[in-house]
Amino acid sequence: MYQVTCDRELTEEDAAKFAAGINSRDDAFLPAAMKLTGGCTALVEICEGKYHQIKRMFHAVRAEVSALKRLRIGGLYLDDNLAFGEYRELTSKEIEKLTDSSFSELELKQ
Fold first, then answer.
1. Facing residues of 33 across strands?
2. pLDDT digits (tens, 9 = 90+) for 28-53
3. pTM reported for the whole predicted model
4. What are the C-alpha distances in Å from 53 to residues 32, 44, 82, 83?
5. Which domain covers residue 21, as residue numbers?
6. Please, which residues have CB within 8 angstroms of residue 68's CB and are 6 or more apart in sequence?
């Protein structure tokens, strides 16, 4: 899951386009969940991992990403206590969360 800030206000129409999948002249992406969090920000969950996918999806709906932060990988939230570039070993429970493909927080809350 990613927290995204764009250069314009995001709409329900944008969220519907993400939910339907993005097919532009240059790109094609599977459906993604977008939860609007107010104004120019949203939470986005994707099921692919293409090169610069989030930025390319927003570009396809005529919005440019000004800030992008990864919050979660699968069921594992990233550790807010780590500084940029810092890392730590995962616990066995965290590894389990990474391999659980059934987790989708945005889909459950919509």
1. 45
2. 999 999 999 999 999 999 998 899 99
3. 0.82
4. 11, 11, 25, 24
5. 1-110
6. 2, 3, 4, 5, 54, 55
